[in-house]
Design a protein that fits this description.
single chain
């Protein structure tokens, strides 16, 4: 059986959308072609990272200067606490924190913004697309953060929608809910493990097929 690669929110989401696409992206390692949309997303995230990191504090490029209000709001919210940007999150199969590229890494991800204040923590995720609220990515981050920061009892989370310049819905995760968070994540991981056991990654048709670059898929519309 092929070794299962470390999972992430992106991998879980990809498998949910289409197991065949997951196999090509995460098992065969086929990179998704860069588009103007993905290039823009990468550039925006990099600009905001450099704007907020303590040792950089690079002003936003003119093209993204209109995001300064949101960046300033994050800095203000972080006063009296610890602000972390593009924070690597990684655990082994025993839920113990490990290195992002360690041989024993089981699950990993990168959190756009984390503000730690004692037993409370806030996390935010920059979103460059249209507003489509989904709490699961933030829930995955919360699962990781509860493992990385055992003193934290309460996590607040928001998506930050850059096109509209607005903070999305607020989500709250409590330490007492940690087991249920991981049950949901493990259920999705289990579906991937079953696919590996059966060596079956069937294509799944959806509205996203027109954007997919897997030419060998019968549902490819390109």
């Amino acid at each position: 059986m092929t070794t299962i690669p470390p999972w992430s929110y992106s991998a879980l989401s990809c498998f949910e959308n289409c197991p065949k696409q997951y196999f090509h992206r995460y098992v065969l390692g086929e990179k998704e072609p860069e588009t103007t949309v993905t290039k823009h997303g990468i550039e925006v995230h990099k600009a905001l990272e450099e704007r907020l990191k303590d040792h950089v504090k690079k002003p936003l490029p003119e093209a993204y200067a209109h995001y300064e209000r949101l960046a300033g709001s994050v800095e203000k919210a972080a006063e009296g606490g610890l602000l972390m940007v593009e924070l690597p999150l990684a655990i082994d199969k025993f839920f113990v924190p490990t290195g992002f590229f360690s041989n024993n890494v089981w699950g990993r991800g990168k959190d756009d913004i984390v503000i730690l204040k004692g037993k409370k923590l806030w996390t935010g995720d920059w979103k460059t697309g249209k507003v489509r609220e989904n709490s699961f990515q933030l829930k995955v981050f919360a699962g990781f953060l509860f493992k990385l920061y055992p003193q934290v009892e309460e996590i607040h989370a928001n998506n930050i929608w850059l096109q509209s310049g607005k903070i999305g819905d607020s989500y709250k995760f409590l330490r007492s809910e940690e087991s249920s968070i991981w049950q949901e994540i493990l259920h999705k991981i289990g579906r991937i493990e079953t696919a590996f056991e059966k060596d079956s990654f069937e294509p799944k048709q959806s509205g996203l097929c027109s954007f997919c670059s897997i030419s060998s898929c019968p549902h490819n519309r390109r």
